[in-house]
Amino acid sequence: MGTSAVVRARFPRLVHLVRRPVAMLGGIGDHALFYIRALAGIPHATVHFRKEIVRLIAEISMGAGTLAMIGGTVVIVGFLTLAAGGTLAVQGYSSLGNIGIEALTGFLAAFINVRISAPVVAGIGLAATFGAGVTAQLGAMRINEEIDALESMAIRPVEYLVSTRIVAGMIAITPLYSIAVILSFLASQFTTTVLFGQSGGLYNHYFDTFLNPIDLLWSFLQAMLMAITILLIHTYFGYFATGGPSGVGVAVGNAVRTSLIVVVSVTLLVSLSIYGSNGNFNLSG
């Protein structure tokens, strides 16, 4: 019996503790290599798999099959941001009303919707709809050996399955996020002016005063960063799924959990890097 086998037999817990960080570093390296391959394959996918990209754009935006009516990403993200904008107006109006400045509800709608609410809610919706679907699709293909079949036909599986989805997701995220932001604005305005009876002119005055176009551009950049990280994470877990049908479910769960952490982490990092400690606005009267 070798020395390493004796150490493993006598000190199993110590060996496990030593191997955990090594395995973690190896997993990070696997992720990085896969992401580099997927991003490097985007030019090849754009040139050779244009029809697949168009099909995926339609699938991302409106869903596939019966889900096109109620389960498309546009529908889900739209409802989520609509509810978030309404909730923001309800909480903002009631909280500001306690100190007699409910007129500033329009300020909250312009400030929080753009910087926090809409990007986070849109990222969660994208991860829960298209991201989870991508993981399940690629996982099923891996379990059924369809990815191996692509390799046997001399088709690059990473470019065909992963890079095409990244391109489609980045194309679809701009109109999708535009719809999300508009719906969050409309929900806040409807809740404040119609349900609570605040003057429309008063709401629009504070909303237009504190809506910074530069913040909208940063918000779109934040949404694009979320989209690409979500797509990379979900394609990785789906592409390397193992363990049969139950393994696909485990991969979807791990991918969604990881992407949700990434969504809030991107929001934190973007907020720190762009707005810093000054907030980039002046509230005075």
Short description:
The chain has helices at residues 3-10, 12-40, 42-48, 50-62, 67-70, 73-97, 105-143, 146-152, 157-195, 200-210, 213-239, 244-274. With 285 residues, it is an all-alpha fold.
Instruction: State the separation between the terminal residues, measured CA to CA.
Output: 81 Å
Mean pLDDT, nearest integer? 82
* Total beta strands: 0
Main sheet attributes: strand count, strand direction, barrel closure: none
Taken as a percent bin, the fraction of beta residues is: under 5%
Structural class: mainly alpha
Q: SSE order in H/E notation?
A: HHHHHHHHHHHH
Helical percentage: over 70%
Computed Rg: 23 Å
Shape: elongated
Number of helices: 12
List low-confidence stretches: 65-69
Q: What order do the helices and strands come in, and which of them pair?
A:
Blueprint: H1 3-10, H2 12-40, H3 42-48, H4 50-62, H5 67-70, H6 73-97, H7 105-143, H8 146-152, H9 157-195, H10 200-210, H11 213-239, H12 244-274
Helix pairs in contact: 1-2, 2-9, 3-9, 4-9, 6-7, 6-9, 7-9, 7-10, 7-11, 7-12, 9-11, 11-12
